[in-house]
Amino acid sequence: MVIQSLLIFFLAAIAPVSAESGIDAWLRYARLPGSVTRGHLNSFPNRIVVLNASKNGPLASASSELHKGIQGILGLDLDVSSSGKSCSAQNTIVVSTLETYQSSCGKLSPKLNLKEDGYWLSAKGKSVQIIGQNERGALYGAFQYLSLLAQGDFSEVAYASNPSAPVRWANQWDNLNAATAAHGSIERGYGGASIFFNNGLIKDDLSRVPLYGRLLASVGINGIIINNVNADANLLNETNLAGVKRIADLFRPWGVKVGISLNFASPQVLGALTTFDPLDSTVIKWWTDKTNRIYQLVPDFAGYLVKANSEGQPGPLTYNRTLAEGANLFAKAIEPHGGIVVFRAFVYDQLNETNWRADRANAAVQFFKDLDGQFDSNVLVQIKFGPIDFQVREPASPLFANLPKTAVSIELQVTQEYLGQQCHLVYLPPLWQTILGFDMRYNHRQSYVRDIVSGEVFNHKLGGYAGVINVGMDDTWIGSHLAMSNMFAFGRLAWNPQADSQDIIEEWTRLTFGLSRDVISAIVDMSMKSWPAYEGYSGNLGIQTLTDILYTHYGANPASQDNNGWGQWTRADSKTIGMDRTVSNGTGNAGQYPKDVADKFEHTQTTPDDLMLWFHHVPYTFKLHSGKTVIQHFYDAHYSGAATVQKFPATWKSLKGQVDAERYVDVLYRLQYQAGHSLVWRDGISEFYRNLSSIPDKLNRVRNHPHRIEAEEMELSGFTTVNVSPTECASKYKAIATNGTGTATTKLNVPSGKYTVAINYYDVMGGSASYDVLLNGKSIGTWKGDSENYLGHDFSTFLDCHSAIRITFEDVKISRGDKLTIKGTGDAQEQAAIDYVAVLPQGVVD
Ligand SMILES: *[C@@H]1O[C@H](CO)[C@@H](O)[C@H](O)[C@H]1NC(C)=O
Ligand SMILES: *[C@@H]1O[C@H](CO)[C@@H](O)[C@H](O)[C@H]1NC(C)=O
Ligand SMILES: *[C@@H]1O[C@H](CO)[C@@H](O)[C@H](O)[C@H]1NC(C)=O
Ligand SMILES: *[C@@H]1O[C@H](CO)[C@@H](O)[C@H](O)[C@H]1NC(C)=O
Ligand SMILES: *[C@@H]1O[C@H](CO)[C@@H](O)[C@H](O)[C@H]1NC(C)=O
Ligand SMILES: *[C@@H]1O[C@H](CO)[C@@H](O)[C@H](O)[C@H]1NC(C)=O
Ligand SMILES: *[C@@H]1O[C@H](CO)[C@@H](O)[C@H](O)[C@H]1NC(C)=O
Which domains does the chain have, with CATH numbers? Predict the structure, then answer.
């Protein structure tokens, strides 16, 4: 009896109910249940032998990580040694580089063909070999082995694994001159303040850096650019370079090399030269000296990332020098040290929409095509996946097929700038794979983007992947537990771009949440549906995301796309919509692709529906391949996309008790928020195009909400009716607001029964308004406009589609004639503001 109760106590202690902050992400090494390990513990190796590890290098990390992981996952405390007659594989996990292994232990069979960073993993009963092409490769092999164990997979394996491309880097957009505001210090960061910088300096406390290095290494990321591409020259001063060295020292054990973004004007801004002309000898000397100094401090420095002549950044064009001359300036300085220069192709000018043929999507090819062959061999041109800017749907950038003589890499964005800013669940690999798996048909031959960026198609040694990953000080790293699957998947796809998106999310879920089938199927199901759903309720048919491009890039504001110089246009008018990118009558963008592809995109008959409005300007009544008109597709996609995410909260609630309380509550809050905000999106976009086109929804959903009570139509005291801008961000275009206290009351004329009461209100920056909803004078729920305490997206100071938010109360018993009152009290800069109340019968979403 005693034993049994002890056992129960023990099980309770390791059950998934203990709080999890997210800090260990997918490297939790949670103890496997006995039912999974049974029979395997006795036949497990009893020691780890690491051969010839360099001090504080990746091999040493591999060994300590294996020890820690096996202790966590299996409860076994293995001996660790770095000596002895270690070649015997009996009872041993051997970890080594290939070179050391072969010189100490003889040839390995089969003969291995390992590329840089690759590994061999063989696990057969009590004998495990983890052999890396280099130390980094051995570390990757160790993480792979631990992933198998953590998933309860004890099957015998023996295989070599090589990365698809040599450059697999994280790009941080951390500002050196961090604002004091938690969210201000990282451009497009939604997970708190920088882990690197504070007030223009490298932080003293860099304790998050090795933890981040460990996460990056575990998915094969081998480099990181630590600062924003809109770079501060002060990073290059002596104080900060000493800090860069400290950061590099902390990443080194994880095989993550450090690089930095450069400000092109540094010689002038920081060095007090009169010029930053890349061909000027004083400038060349300045960069050469600076580079030599950096390598003194950081001998394995990865290289430079450069954003030049883009969005106001200085660059070589100021001196009539070419972008290639600009890139080569750094390439020559860094070449003797073995570093590389990554030069971003994100260069474009402001344009005037009155010119039908102007097109920002053409810019990258226009700026770079003629420079092909002029870049030094240690320059990598980094190309955003699509021609514009990380939109919910874009074709692959044509530049991938226009630089055969130049090494290129692809820039993906893990941070969800235009895709819900980590407050909407959007699992991105299916989107990325539409690009990576796109066949450019260069010279009519198969040429997938993934094979172009690996260097294979055009035969380049360099090539690779950059992921814009804006981790911050938040325990969840990027602001959301579920969004971390994107970071994990970025690494997995950079290693193997043909990996299956669903396999990746399954692996991630097991590692992050354990082996419960319910949990796995729920998270996998939601994740796989999330990008199509987000595309459904945001921008369809290649019209871009339709977020507010002039402000937060968060909520809907389709009008913001047009009538400005940014070139993210839709050209929507009352009859037609879409960018004419044809050669015959439009911007000619289709013609930037190789002929097979160009021919396809030139004509509506051969353009896929999901890119129709990207390439063609058509009437709202244009019939798609699906048989639907453009406008009806908009309505249907918005309703079905929002309907999909309405189910997410209930799916998640079904996991109660199977997920620890801390993560359960946090994720539930976000999924409920997303469900509500998807309706703001649905209604905003549907209303906007309904108004513009004057074409009603065939299914009569748009503008028809029988269960809604407009706040402005309630009996008001202390509230005033206000206009909302854009108008489509309020139901019937108006809301009510108060800085003080107000009440809005209405009599409910519904059959007696149980209802869901949903209230759409606005939560702006600068205060926490409070609310109380009462039925016949009795409170059924209170809340505050304090979502900024839980969500990391960019907030708005206006009543608009960013601040619009919904709260729901379920199972409210209502009798016909009951009196519903909403009381609101403003706080500081935040007005209490309400759009409408929906009294919904069970299962109805209005
Ligand atoms: C041990 O590693 C060093 C490099 O860190 C290498 O020079 C040396 O040859 C290795 N020794 C053996 C026995 O492989
Ligand atoms: C380097 O720049 C930071 C501001 O980013 C400043 O605080 C520091 O004093 C500078 N150090 C030197 C040596 O100029
Ligand atoms: C660059 O060239 C343009 C025209 O060719 C000329 O007007 C301008 O002065 C030049 N600028 C510099 C900095 O040389
Ligand atoms: C765009 O071009 C039109 C027509 O030439 C002109 O009236 C307008 O001022 C231009 N807009 C900008 C922002 O330059
Ligand atoms: C051709 O371009 C003009 C603008 O130059 C545009 O108004 C017209 O709609 C386009 N025609 C077709 C068939 O797309
Ligand atoms: C409908 O669209 C027109 C422009 O086409 C705009 O002026 C008007 O304000 C819109 N109406 C509403 C209610 O949003
Ligand atoms: C609340 O105060 C602000 C700033 O004084 C003002 O702009 C706004 O109109 C007020 N709101 C209401 C509903 O009176």
Answer: 5-161 (3.30.379.10), 167-513 (3.20.20.80), 558-579+617-693 (3.90.1330.10), 708-841 (2.60.120.260)
